[in-house]
Design a protein that fits this description.
Blueprint (H helix, E strand, L loop, with lengths): L1 E3 L2 E3 L7 H17 L13 E6 L4 E6 L2 E7 L8 E5 L21 E2 L3 E3 L5 E3 L11 E14 L2 E12 L2 E16 L2 E11 L5 E3 L10 E3 L11 E4 L5 H5 L6 E8 L2 E9 L10 E3 L4 E4 L10 E3 L4 E12 L7 H9 L6
Antiparallel strand pairs: 1-3, 2-10, 3-4, 4-5, 5-6, 7-15, 8-9, 8-14, 10-11, 11-12, 12-13, 13-22, 14-21, 15-20, 16-17, 17-18, 18-22, 19-20
């Protein structure tokens, strides 16, 4: 299904139509106040949202070229964004690299502990030969595109051996900034609807979300990691508390980067960070909760709120600090 800008598509039930109208109005508000003069759209390049239910993909195209794709195949162990195309036209992320095949571009997962003490590791779900451990897409409540914005609200279930352990509501607000740059505002909300949910995260290998950079953009290939506190490189950013982290590199004279923003309304702000020179990075939890058991009683929820900025230039040319300040102040509008 192809959805051109200024049209809305909803898979929600009829009685939710008024809610969809409200969401579309919210996107129009984003159009009105989200763009400043330096954030211009590309003249003549129309944004199109393509939904392919047979391939289980949502693709965002600008000028006929895909710049972002969300994949949610029913037989795979988790949904994720891939590719994530930078302004240069290169994919900035890696999907299943040889050294860590379970790392899937841009994704969210965690490790849970069952009542019998068994660990259910969604991070390593790729290696579950029975395919019993997965974060499964259930449905979209809405999918829409208006002007230079895209949004969806998705229902997922975290399950093991056919048993639901937790539900998730995942929302995306996407705004195209022009010249190949864009911002994603993501909220991951875990709901303990099936009983107590116990998080038993790995001490290091959990981030919310993870980003795995493409090989050419990693620190091992000359890429640069910078955080909001002035730390540079893995040694100065790994395990450090910061509001954002940026990863960039230059290929054939063109510099691209991805910055991950921690939103101030997240309960784990400002987080510690996982950053590695081989290309994996993302926000963890605050120091007192990082790598430690956390419980959600039945009926409770927990949200993580982040921004993903895909930009040209390095951290300075990409105006990462300035854009984070605007993001933290409410840009794009919710």
């Amino acid at each position: 299904m192809r959805i051109a800008a200024d049209k809305c598509y909803s898979v929600s039930r009829m009685h939710e139509s008024l809610y969809l109208v409200a969401c579309c109005a919210s996107l129009l508000l984003m159009t009105a106040i989200g763009l400043r003069s330096e954030e211009r759209v590309d003249a003549g390049k129309k944004l199109v949202l393509n939904q392919d239910e047979t391939q289980h993909r949502l693709s965002i195209l600008v000028g006929g070229k895909e710049i972002l794709c969300y994949r949610y195949e029913p037989d795979f162990f988790l949904p994720r964004f891939f590719p994530v195309i930078g302004p240069s036209g290169n994919s900035l992320t890696d999907e299943g690299p040889k050294d860590h095949p379970h790392q899937r571009s841009l994704y969210f997962c965690d490790q849970l502990k069952l009542d019998d003490g068994k660990n259910v590791d969604f991070y390593m779900g790729l290696y579950d030969k029975k395919k019993e451990t997965r974060i499964r897409h259930k449905s979209f409540e809405y999918v829409k595109a208006i002007g230079q914005q895209v949004a969806f609200k998705e229902h997922l279930v975290w399950e093991h051996a056919g048993k639901p352990l937790a539900d998730e509501i995942r929302t995306l607000s996407f705004i195209y900034l022009g010249d190949g740059e864009y911002l994603m505002d993501l909220v991951f909300r875990i709901e303990a609807n099936h009983g107590t949910v116990t998080f038993k995260p790995r001490d290091k290998h959990i981030a919310i979300p993870f980003v795995r950079m493409a090989p050419e953009y990693t620190g091992q290939k000359g890429g640069t990691i910078v955080n909001s506190e002035g730390g540079v490189g893995e040694k100065q950013t790994m395990g450090k508390t910061a509001s954002w982290v940026d990863y960039s590199n230059t290929l054939k004279g063109k510099t691209d980067g991805i910055a991950v923003f921690s939103h101030p309304d997240s309960p784990f702000h400002p987080p510690r960070w996982f950053t590695r020179a081989y290309g994996l990075f993302g926000p963890r939890r605050v120091d007192q909760r990082d790598g430690k058991t956390l419980h959600l009683k039945k009926g409770e929820t927990m949200s993580h709120h982040v921004g993903i900025l895909v930009h040209s230039g390095d951290v300075e040319a990409g105006k990462v600090a300035e854009r984070y300040a605007r993001y933290a102040a409410g840009w794009p509008a919710p």
